[in-house]
Amino acid sequence: MNSNIYKAHFALLGANIIYGANYIIAKDIMPDKIGPSAFVFIRLICCTALFWVVKSIFIKEKVERKDFPRLAFCGLLGAAANMLFFFYGINLTSPIDASIIMTSTPVIVLVFSVFILREPVTKNKILGITIGGIGAVFLILYGNKTAGTSSLLGNVFVFLNAISYGLYLVLAKTLIKKYNPITVISWIFLFGFIYVIPFSLGDFINTNFEGFTTETYLAVGYVVLFTTFFAYIFNVYALNILSPSVTSSYIYLQPVISFLMVSVYAFILLKDKYAEDINIIKILSCLMVVIGVYIISKPTKTQQN
Hints:
By secondary structure, this protein is an all-alpha fold. It is 76% helix and 0% strand. It has one domain. The mean pLDDT is 82.
């Protein structure tokens, strides 16, 4: 294994640790300090600016006019809808629920790939979709019947986020093949930011920034710089070296990191509202989703890692 492959694995490890921690870091300041839509507004305006600065310095590339409709649609799915659904969902539900539901994204990508890209269906894929789907659906429905911070509506929002993001990945595939990934994400974030302005500008203006503490600013900075900007850079770097099956397998880490973070908040930082978020039902649901995704992504004898 050469040094570039090692670096790619470390990049994926870093990205998914960032994502796993994001669930509770983002939730912990909503809605007391900032509302979900205002949070999305800050995330998009800051990262749109960051990506465009990087593009203007390092990437001198123009986009053909015919590709703008697809970029605009990907901006709707991959930036606006996906972020709004996620932040409204995590505002309502448990970080553990959200992280488990998000591991169904590879299953959703597979379903859309079959219908849109006409990818072949195998027995492993059908079995994986069935097992993972049962686990995710059971957890979503269970969210309204348990103690802790779980919520049926919040779980539904997170699942809608996974659907919109999964469809975005499939539709953006041809764009990423044609253009530099930084070019693609710069335009997607710009369109996404335009879409969310009508839904989030008012909440952003009405946010009480004077009530922000150092902890609040650190949480917002984490979501903007790490969860959005650096995590995307890490994933792009890894995708240039490793296969998609290896890359997607790292999403299994997110529920593990989320479980650990919730445990720290509940039992070390003594935040009682998270104390009942860990139970056997959620652990079993997590295992079903992970097993399903593993079966789907397990390489065949003809595939290379």
